[in-house]
User: What shape does this take?
Amino acid sequence: MKTEDMIKEITRISGGNPAKCMKCGKCSGACPAYDEMDYHPHQFVNMVLDGRIEELANSKGIINCLSCFACLERCPRSVEPARIIEAVRVVTLREQGKNHLKPDGIPAILDDDLPQQAITSALRKYAK
Amino acid sequence: MKFSYYPGCTLSAKAKDLDEYGRKAAEALGITLEELPEWQCCGAVYPNATDEIATRLSSVRALSNAKKAGMPLVTLCSACHHVIKRVNHDMLNNVDIREKVNTYLGTMEGAEPYEGDWQVIHYLEMLRDCVGFDELKAKVVNPLKGKKIGAYYGCLLLRPGKEMQMDDPENPTILEDFIRAIGAEPVYYGMRNECCGGYITVEDKAQAKKRVNAITDNARNSGAEMLITACPLCHYNLQKNADEPIQTVYFTELLAEALGVK
Amino acid sequence: MQRIGVFVCWCGSNIAATVDVQAVADALAKEPGVVFATNYQYMCSQTGQDMIQEKIKELGLTGVVICSCSPRMHEATFRRTCEKAGLNPYMVEIANIREQVSWVHKDKAVGTEKAIILGRAAIAKVQLNTPLIAGESPVTKRALVIGGGIAGIQTALDIADAGFPVDIVETKPTIGGKMAQLDKTFPTLDCAACILTPKMVDAGQNDNIRILSYSEVEEVKGFVGNFEVKIRRKARYVKEDLCTGCGLCMEKCPQKKVPNEFNMGLDNRTAIYIPFAQAVPKVATIDANYCLMLKNGKCGLCSRNCTAGAIDYKQQDEFIEEKYGAIVVATGFNPISLDKFDEFAYSKSPDVVSSLEFERLMNAAGPTGGTLLRPSDRTHPHTIVFVQCVGSRCDASAEKGKEYCSKICCMYTAKHAMLTREKYPDTEVYVFYIDVRTPGKSFDEFYRRAVEQYNVHYIKGMVGKVVPEGGKLKVQASDLLDNRQIHIDADMVVLAAAIEPDKSARPLATKLTASMDTNDFFTEAHPKLRPVESPTAGVFLSGTCQGPKDIPETVAQAGAAASKVIGLLVKDKLIGNPCVAKPNELMCNGCSSCEKVCPYGAITYEDKPFRGPNRTTLIRRVACVNPAVCQGCGACTVACPSGAMDLQGFSNRQIMAEVDAICK
Assistant: This one.
């Protein structure tokens, strides 16, 4: 896909609008997963606008984002970075062989108390 | 008062306490919770991507069935509530999603179109808006005097505030008001609406640990002796991943205790 | 048949780029009654105007059509031009081919066709135009200033200086406004009180100024030069003429737990109070919400102790009615409520304060006597975090905050940071900014001084969360230039809250029929060329009621508004607008429909004699329009069931002729 189309696709899927960003960095100030993400919420917004989506697709950021929506709630510009991160993740996982979590891997992570929703949500987040 | 009730998968298995106490307490309050027939898993995460349709279907089925039953839908698990309420919001406000979902359900299942025109509320909203915390207080037989309790909201119950419409996402009061109603003392701590790590626990335990420790430290340093939650995954993370866990219970357990039906 | 001249303007390339002006002139030259049509680069220029005048004289034109910009822009200009050449100014019509054509169409063919149609409509109208003569109305040589902050005070002083009486209506017990609450002022750091209070005293002592404090505008009637205003003087339960401002009542008042609004609620005042030492008028006011005597009839201490006998518990609100020639709005601003930004823990920790609260904490007359102490435990803060743009520059769909930049925050935050470092070098100061905006004389130098000389830590990024814990405020923020998240244990957090127009502005605008924007700032008549006038004639704007401003800008605008008022008040008579409603008495059946819809109260009824059959006289009730009050809105012409009411210059026939010409 051409870079331009890629930007459009990410923006469409996200339902957000990275062009509204005023680069205040509140998203990254709010982010509880900041240190675990290699690219941070404000960078996702900026890099999607710049068309550097490939780099984001291969980043730890799409895995370690907690989808806690702190950035989305506190964004003063309605850019809502969580939506954009999710869109990059979804587009990445939809590619053949890009699933991060495979059903075979699940028994290893189970423990007696682990609630079902943890596995369901991990599968929803990390696989397609 | 009668409501349709959506328990969700985790409440039928690992989080039976949340469910059982919730049902008992409702009964004590004179509320009938009628479990939806043949409900399906909500998927546990809301599909943020606007082009995902299949992952929204189970929520729509639940909403549609509640509408057919003619009773507002009550949920208890934070995650289920988050998913179903947001899908409902989509069905009301996003024409594209609404049309695709209805076309699918209409063609495949012969379902009536659903327009997002039914109400789904959280159990806590039911207590606040339908029962009333004053009324609840009057029905408490066993007030939990002297208990210093921190309300743990997490992320899913409140955010995004515009869609969840439950409480102020940055300064919520519903759980604190609940704690007061059952005779205990709410303890404010700033991390009450910060993420516990959620599903990252299966991917990166260290990250989940870090999140949970930040929350429990802040709660303890603010004077909380116990935390309450409405989310099985938060419950798990807070209990399992904290270096020094604070006792964490489902709010329904304390409700049942206060109403004398535990 | 009129002899009409058509003048098509290029407006440089503004019109000519999307409209074939030659083709328009050629097409319109063929319209009936048109004896001349031309086009020219700038019709509003002296050369353009000369050409119009020459053609009027040379060809004996009886009507003129100008195809140009909006009539809002230059109708008055071209009317004057034609009047000078001996043509009645109401024989001129404007076809708006800029805003309605060239600026909204891209295709030249489409634009040209539409321009011709609009020109044709104007020609059709001119055919039916009749010369109109404007009436005159007298001017009441007194001004009303609504709001007694620095804007209102300056405007009043300037008007009074020119020799005209002015009333200041201020809702608070004293004038002074926000500036009275400030400590130092940027960028010179002179003390706000030192420069404001002399002006307050001047206003109080000026023979031409009457201060109506603790008062509100209740009702406004009339029109430019002739406003009639009803003012509510709220009961302050103290006789203003007797009170000496000695303050004994405040010492004796047992109700000492009233949140002190002057100190932003950071300390308490008594139920009877004078807001601050330099108040003007220096008169006590009883707060009825807290006074024990007024609430349950038990107390009376202030009355017993007042040697002047000024206390009057039975006082009622009073109304006064006054006539004014001009009204100046100076209702000012307030910081927004921070309710929706509790990620900064404003409602949870007393040590998270707004900038205006911080101002009071730094002020010698403030709750801490000018020593910076944090509100929770009155200890000295060693680490302070300032957060910029709280609630400013927000996207509308975020449903919280304001879309605009509040303009003053960057500078007052630099001031706070600098003053803190100056007084308390042991205090670390962090400023989180999105952009530092310092466009003003000596402004950027001021901000650089904070950075270079006072070592204030300016960090490009935003605070995402503040968590109070163990007497500290744990601040989590981003440092975008360093690409890292930082955590600061702060003792205080100061939020630069967005500013918004005072809540009284919206209802006042309704009373004045003055327009506002979506943010409730008053709209100016023209954003560049008439910045201190409201589109409503006779209503002027001063200070932040029109948009965010700092003190120098406010004072400049206040003076500008005053000069506009003076320019109006020196006139003995105003020329009215002749385009007013006029009833055809033979058709009027006296039904009152028009009177009911008239928003200006311009229509009354009279019993008039008419000749009946067989030389009898019939008395019939018919509508009468007061041309000085009528604003020409046309509501009555639509409401009239018998078609008796017509608007001069916009008669039903003229409008139908335009519609016919467009639909031809």
In short: Residues 100-128 of chain A form one domain. The CA atoms of residues 97 and 127 of chain A lie 10 Å apart. Chain A has two domains: 3-95, 100-128.
